[in-house]
Design a protein that fits this description.
about 260 residues; alpha/beta; 6-stranded parallel sheet; 8 strands; about 55% helix; globular; binds adenosine-5'-triphosphate; binds magnesium ion
Length: about 260
């Protein structure tokens, strides 16, 4: 990995960019994953590179929904394994959810590389999606493969950094779908039941923290959190946040400004 000086004003952005490149070198991340990462970075600039209130609200509802679920599954792809492998495992444990490797550009090598990476953090963890035998209706062969004991049976699924078509197909199957996606305008963001508009590198640690905090809440309380959640309002609030932020920046002026 290229050494980035800590003093660089965009250290963390460069750090995660390197993680994605490393993910590709390890055979986990697809070329298209590099492009998707850049798209995410662009939206993070607009949001302000922090967890905004609508994202915190979505995270809380998502954690509540997962704690209530009967067969919760967290999907892992090449970008997720490159950015947050350790946090993915922590989250699965905190939410008592199953992990499934599920790829848009599925190759057996990529699946094995991701499995290897996850096992570095827990050699014994159950990982689904190695031999998927079922298919999501409406998606072509490779793109639709899912594990019979994972996404196929799940009532609640977390599909971060996911393609819009697959998100929509899962919703059509009757799954309750949670996504993490920095682009509030993407099809995934618009189709999911709960959309966490945040960088996964911030959202996952926060979800782990909240899961530990909320898992002793009475189920009735968790149900109330889910029932009172409104994803349409969340997405609108994200758009308004971006608009208001840009208006403020434009009025203050950004020329030669060091921090945004
Ligand atoms: P869609 O298919 O949903 O319309 P898309 O085709 O633009 O969106 P995909 O490549 O299918 O995008 O999905 C990847 C999504 O993940 C993008 O919306 C991108 O903004 C988002 N993304 C990329 N990196 C991150 C990240 N680190 N955290 C959160 N979201 C991210
Ligand atoms: Mg897409």
């Amino acid at each position: 990995m290229v050494k980035i000086p800590k003093s660089h004003p965009r250290y963390w952005s460069l750090y995660y960019r390197e993680k994605i490149i490393e993910g590709m070198e390890k055979g986990m991340t697809a070329k298209a994953g590099l492009i998707a990462h850049g798209r995410g970075e662009a939206f993070d600039y607009l949001i302000g590179e922090k967890t905004i209130e609508p994202a915190e609200r979505a995270i809380r509802a998502a954690v509540a929904k997962f704690l209530l679920a009967e067969w919760p599954v967290i999907s892992v792809n090449g970008n997720v394994a490159a950015l947050v492998p350790k946090e993915t495992i922590e989250l699965a444990k905190a939410l008592n959810a199953k992990l499934e490797i599920n790829l848009f550009y599925r190759t057996e090598e990529r699946v094995r590389a991701i499995e290897r990476e996850l096992r570095k953090y827990d050699p014994n963890i159950e990982i689904l999606g190695i031999n998927p035998t079922k298919r999501i209706p409406g998606l072509e062969h490779e793109r639709g493969k899912v594990d019979e004991n994972g996404i196929w049976r799940a009532d609640v699924v977390l599909v971060p950094l996911e393609d819009g078509d697959r998100t929509e197909a899962l919703v059509k199957m009757g799954k309750f779908v949670v996504t993490v996606d920095l682009n509030p305008l993407s099809r995934s963001a618009r189709m999911a039941d709960i959309t966490i508009v945040d960088n996964i590198v911030r959202a996952y640690p926060r979800m782990v923290e909240l899961a530990k905090e909320m898992r002793n809440l009475p189920r009735e309380k968790l149900r109330k959190i889910v029932e009172s959640y409104d994803n349409g309002k969340t997405l609108s609030d994200v758009l308004l946040h971006i608009r208001n932020r840009l208006t403020e920046l434009a009025e203050e002026g950004i020329w030669r400004r060091k921090e945004l």
